[in-house]
Write the structure tokens for this entry.
Amino acid sequence: MKPSGEDQAVPGGGDPWEECFEAAVQLALRAGQIIRKALTEDKHVSTKTSAADLVTETDHLVEDLIISELQKRFPSHSRFIAEETTASGAKCVLTHSPTWIIDPIDGTCNFVHRFPTVAVSIGFAVHQELEFGVIHHCTEERLYTGRRGQGAFCNGQRLQVSGETDLSKALVLTEIGPKRDPATLKLFLSNMERLLHAKAHGVRVIGSSTLALCHLASGAADAYYQFGLHCWDLAAATVIIREAGGIVMDTSGGPLDLMSCRVVAAGTREMATLIAQALQTINYGRDDEL
Ligand code: IPD
């Protein structure tokens, strides 16, 4: 079933953020059309924090479009945390005001290589609480949504995480993150090795944090962990996972800190705790100190 704005609407009964949610859905779908077209065209590629941290003109185009449309539609909203604006020096601070948290293309490296695992991610927080998340898998035309207290859906089908608690029966997802220095790579590989020694069925890297997290929300994987992702990779997906019944926490085993650049998520608390206990920390700093 193709996504449309309508089939995502959950009877809300007075949700104050209904209009914002609908706007996010429409913009994510519109952004998806632009990204799908651009995927097959020549791109101008630049690097940001490392040679593996890529950006294209389409990342900027989509981000500008989403922010300008939201500003027109909600003139009282002035807080936007977005990947490319942050890369240009904007501060990344979550206040109590309504805040839009945007990744215009998650999986930019995939996008550059025409590897068809690419998403737009739009999250929305008020009083530092995530209210909804919308993620559009652009090439497969899947629209993932989650609204606080109202469930999580993919193209209208309700999402449910897996109930797996045994690491030796788990399919685990992760992402490499942008750093490629030898010490970081050693820790990254050693973390993967620890999970494989614990006899996890597999560890997968698909090149898009948000879509990996959506796979977790749909029960297609049992756990996800990463060091080096950003709040715009995580915000929308966190609502979707929680509303699908899952756990999103810090790699220390404590509560999630959206700005900490690290996460463990799983279908069950037992699984998330096992993963957190197995991991060695890779320090990526914090988004609010960028
Ligand atoms: C990145 C991707 C990548 C992950 C990085 C993310 P971007 O997002 O999700 O898989 O390893 O940590 O920042 O740069 O493509 O939006």
The chain is about 35% helix and 25% strand.
